[in-house]
User: Which sequence fits this backbone?
């Protein structure tokens, strides 16, 4: 019984030390987060827990509002120009506009 109690005490102490290390190491980084980030992450986690599908929780779907006098194709091309401006960030994931054209979304 003393052995089990000793092991559980050791495990508890290691967990506390680990939490202290993480708090000290990454605590300053958490202050730099956007003030709405925690709410967004909690909402995402709630959707993932509700649906069981990570993609449904992580993807924000918005309906595209096309201004009057602009065709759907022009609106998509404008969106592609914005996305291409972010291609440095997206380079690991491929060019989304080329993917859209490949799948005939445009």
Assistant:
């Amino acid at each position: 019984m003393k052995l089990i109690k000793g092991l559980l005490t050791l495990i508890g102490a290691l967990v506390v030390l680990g939490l202290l290390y993480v708090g000290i190491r990454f605590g300053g980084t958490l202050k730099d987060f956007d003030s709405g980030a925690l709410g967004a992450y909690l909402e995402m986690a709630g959707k993932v827990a509700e649906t069981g599908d990570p993609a449904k929780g992580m993807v924000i779907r918005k309906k595209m509002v096309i201004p009057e006098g602009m065709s759907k194709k022009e609106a998509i091309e404008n969106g592609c120009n914005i996305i291409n401006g972010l291609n440095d960030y997206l380079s690991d994931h491929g060019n989304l506009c080329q993917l859209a054209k490949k799948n005939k979304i445009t």
Notes: The chain has six helices and no strands. The mean pLDDT is 78.
